[in-house]
Design a protein that fits this description.
Length: 222
């Protein structure tokens, strides 16, 4: 089977190249990968558990990078053995190019399976291989680009009570001044005029003096 595709990654080519050679990034992007370790300058070992149709197996194998052209391209080849399930081997040529908005990653891949896997039929195998390739490169793109940039800051929320709250408070201060209340009583008058918060504010017990203040406030607010 053969597969081709491209991804435009919003990152510099050097960053994409570094990620393509990072075992931890590769492990995070390969579906079902449980281990990816570098064993040499251009060699790695991997363990991948996958389920293809009714067949589930853990594949252990080696991966090698060939025809390496720094920051431009390489060929990645590998073979994994899954015991009674059979084996899978293949490779891909990966190329990088500068484009507007970042780096274009293109690939040409091929794969072959044997054993029980081969008995599942080419249609199932081809569909599975394409899904694996798409998922890997989608994950890789997301991994290199990082989290999406947050949206522009929204306007700060209005204080509790909003504009009406402030208008009521200012009006209450005017009434308090008119009544020649001391600062402490003026504060109580201001709080009395402000809308009550349904959860945190508790209306104080009314006293004769507060009734008088409320009379002024009711005439003011209508």
């Amino acid at each position: 089977m053969e597969m081709t595709g491209t991804r435009t990654i919003a990152a510099e080519r050097s960053a994409v190249w570094t990620a393509l050679n990072d075992p931890e990034v590769l492990k995070a992007c390969i579906p079902g990968c449980e281990r990816m370790e570098k064993t040499g300058e251009n060699t790695l070992e991997a363990e991948v558990t996958q389920k293809v149709g009714p067949v589930k197996a853990k594949f252990k194998g080696a991966v090698e990078l060939q025809d390496v052209v720094e920051a431009e391209s390489y060929r990645i080849v590998g073979e994994g053995k899954g015991g009674a399930a059979g084996f899978a081997k293949g490779g891909a040529v990966v190329r990088l190019a500068d484009v507007e908005g970042g780096t274009e990653l293109s690939y040409e891949a091929e794969a072959k399976v044997g054993g029980k896997l081969a008995q599942l039929g080419s249609r199932l195998i081809d569909g599975f291989a394409k899904k694996m390739a798409d998922e890997f490169f989608d994950r890789f793109k997301a991994e290199v680009e990082g989290p999406a940039a947050p949206a522009e800051d929204e306007a700060p929320a209005a204080p509790a009570g909003g504009e009406d709250h402030h208008q009521a408070t200012d009006a209450a201060r005017e009434v308090a001044n008119h009544m020649h209340l001391d600062p402490e009583e003026a504060a109580r008058a201001s709080a009395e005029a402000a809308p009550l918060h349904p959860e945190t504010d508790v209306k104080p017990e009314e006293t004769a003096k507060e009734d008088e203040k409320k009379g002024w406030l009711s005439r003011l607010f209508g």
